[in-house]
Amino acid sequence: MLQTLGLLLGCQLLGEMTVRGFGLAMPGPVLGLTLLVLILTRMPILAERLRPTSTVILANLSFLFVPAGVGVIGNLEALSGDGIALLVILILSTVLSMLATVGTFIGVRHVTERWTT
Asked: Structure pTM?
């Protein structure tokens, strides 16, 4: 498990270093995840070794939201002044995110249907 966790964190670190080093306008973990996908497509056996580690991480993902919740409670008075604006922004961004997801799904479905016919 330590080796696969090292692979996950190493890809994230490499992505972060690359983004900061070259001043790219994208999050480092996104570049790291892209690197991980490339590695896993070249070495599929590694994906099977990575599965137990990623399963444990995903099963305990809710623990990562605890610090965010504590931060919200700790700054509740600062957030209360802009509560309505924050609520509108949260609802709007959720709807836009869902629409983007549906659009992406429809686009990918059209592309894959062309390949299969």
From this structure: 0.57
